[in-house]
Amino acid sequence: MSKRRVTVIATTAIAGLGAALLSAAAFAPAAATLEPTVTNIPVVTDWHQITLPLDSYQPSTENRQMVLQAEYAETKSCMAKFGFNFQAPSWDKQLATGPISHYRLYGLLDEVHAEQMGYHSYGEKPAAEAKYSKEQHSADYYNVVAAKTGGGVYNGEQIPEGGCIGQARLDIEGPGSVVDLPLTLAFNSWTVSNNDSRVRAGFAAWSKCMSRAGFSYATPMDANNDDRWSGEKATDAEIKVAVTDVNCKKSTNLVGIRMAVDAAHQSVEIATHRSKLQAVTGDLARQLEKANAILSQELTS
Amino acid sequence: MKAGSKVKSDRRLRRAAKTALIEHGTSKKRMRERIARLAFLAAAVAAGLVLGPSVAAMAGQNDGYCDNNEVCVYSNANLGTPRSDFLYYYDDMSGGVDFHTYNYPSSCNNLFIFYCRLNDSISSVDSWSDHRSIRIFTDAHYDGAYQKIGIYGRVNQVIYNDQTSSECWNDGGISYSTDPDCTFSN
Fold it and tell me: In angstroms, what separates the C-alpha of A22 from chain B's closest C-alpha?
């Protein structure tokens, strides 16, 4: 027996034993690690059900939109001083309202989407976008609006740091690091939870479900990221895998497990960074107040 | 580079070459010979055999240069090379045929080979879009965790270093209920 064959058999045996142990320990935290306790695993069959503790530290879509409108108003007036006309982006007609969404945070869970286009997105290039590829701003415009070529002086005026839009963002949002904290923490917990023993056990159960249908993937990310799905549109093979993936996620409650474990890790992050997160809440309120004041002034002037 | 883009690029190349020759008052015979040579060069470009920096320097997406409304992604932090530029969303940086570096080195420009790919190796992003915010995701097809970048936004070090696999802008052409990840506030 070759050395390689021995290694393969030994690895398979260890992996099998590991999977069995993980299954047995499914929802209890691993003793030797610092995995937080998960008290409740909700059944999640629809992405709308996904909510996480750090969501409350992020602005709602409506509030964010108000802040952006104020920033664009300030940018426009700054650009005018340099002799440029800044056109604020138009607003989408069908905007989300309410809290932030987690559509594919734990992978595709929408069976209709899977049946129609596999893992691919609905996104298409609308005809209205064609004009933007031809639109030309001058190098000076880019430098004044966002200091793309280093800022400096234009027409005898000092370009603000980060350009006009950089100045507006700083003025209304303040230094980014504070407000970005919830997003950074959320990403950290998402990453850590992917390696949590309970999530790994969930991946193993999902993988077993997929293998029963003839598909070999260790995690849903592997199925989603399969290089064979890189064409412009979904193939029949992709659709079959995506539909099976969604069904297996539901039958194993993988998204419920991932959400519960992620939420537990987020709660630890919140406890660790409580004072900084309280500061974020205060900063978001101040941003909104300032945005309101700017937009009210715009209306009256 | 997609086939359609190649054809357009070749047409531009032929047109530019022809104009230049006429302006220099070259004789018709020499002009025909040179046009033939340039046509051969254009055909070679289309066949993916040659793509030098001078051709790649023409403005447009997938040329290694940030232009109007494009998003540039960089392998290194602080907008360090190698880089790639694109105009629209990119849903699969792992398998997408255009998603590789351009001019770093130039041998990557027309070849889809492993070391030229930028999948899972993006460290910084520079958006030149004047009307679309973008989101960059850890996994392909807008899956996983994401980071937001506003119009004209620049991120010198992404939160998810070396993990980005897809990018999309808020697409006003689709309803939020059908594609929530790529339909979001500006």
Answer: 24
